């Protein structure tokens, strides 16, 4: 069959998604993912990476697990050829590295035969990253300078195994096996049969580099029993060799303060990242289950008119980072010069809101000691606000305390509804995981996240602890008849993270 000349329209990037930790995704991978019209991703690709893609990009899940294939390999091949052939930029996102037991070469060949341009974007392989996150260096001067990587899952249509167990067993150095957890007993027996020492140390790491990571240890002789006794499941990477002994000293990832704690983040999808990242850096396994999303106000014209007149006010008051974003989004549609904001002073309810204001290169003139509405009112009592005009940038459903109290002080307050919160309805995978795996902690960062989570009517797992960002959110939690186990001292994301860490440090 003759090959067609590569088409100038459309290109498919075969991208390694890395082992799971989004921090190990490559810059080149992020670059092409941001440009993609279509993202075709598999089971081992961390869904968090999809955040890098355009909101309008088509996302197609083609995950394959043992005996559970969303789409056959032949179907995947046809899909990437079809989508790229339509002149689109396609990213085929594959766990780990696309050509290390990833069938990326086969998919590339299909594209070549179809006359379609492609590019391979290597990824960090779990064969090295997985052991490293378990505290196991695959090479070490005191142990070995040789590494053998093999797969425990071969093409089931082949009449016989292509693995030479004798050569693997007798090879010096570390052996790393990808896939094949269900066959480890058989494989270990084969290696012993062909000369490997039965007492050779073995470690398996499941969901390596993520908050779900779990590691077990044994020897070639005992590892099958350890797997059975601990009900250990795939996906996992297996390390065979004396380098496993270094784990006692080098186990850095699993020793972090929140390791093994599964924490639910209920913030909006756009805002969840900061809280999730901070908790994950402490070792937590994160389930992002946003209960709300932010949408424009119902009366966008009225909001726009108030923003247009912002330069006529003495004060502009911001009570959330969302309000800041929506204000300046509208402001820069109306003006092209930051000086058009005039001489208005700016107040922020807390450091998160203040940081967002500063990101637009504006200073904050008033920041309360307590980061709640009552704290802001207390701070304004120290100012002379009588007969001053104030523009309060707020959400659709917000307590009226700021307007009421400022007006009582003699200020003239206009309220600009910048956004509204509505229930998030794109949470199927997160809800399923919450139901199946449960959680140790659920975090709430506003009264609306509490309200909308309870509207989901999900059963709360036994022992679930509730963490609140501060008194206003806590009031909504208590009103719902729930017990608060953790409350931030400072009503900020950093304060919430610190409170959770302190709780478990006890």
Backbone CA Rg: 27 Å
CATH fold naming of the largest domain? Methyltransferase, Cobalt-precorrin-4 Transmethylase, Domain 2
Question: What is the percentage of strand-forming residues?
Answer: 15-25%
Spatial strand arrangement across the major sheet: 3-2-6-1-7
The coarse silhouette is elongated
CATH architectural arrangement of the largest domain: 2-Layer Sandwich
What is the tally of beta strands?
22
Secondary structure category: alpha/beta
- Taking pLDDT < 50 over at least 5 consecutive residues as the criterion, the unreliable ranges are 1-5
- Please report the number of helical segments: 18
CATH homolog superfamily of the largest domain:
Tetrapyrrole methylase, C-terminal domain
| Highest CATH level, the class of the largest domain | Alpha Beta
Mean pLDDT: 92
| Total domain count | 4
Summarize this entry quickly:
This protein has 506 residues and is α/β, with parallel strands linked by helices.
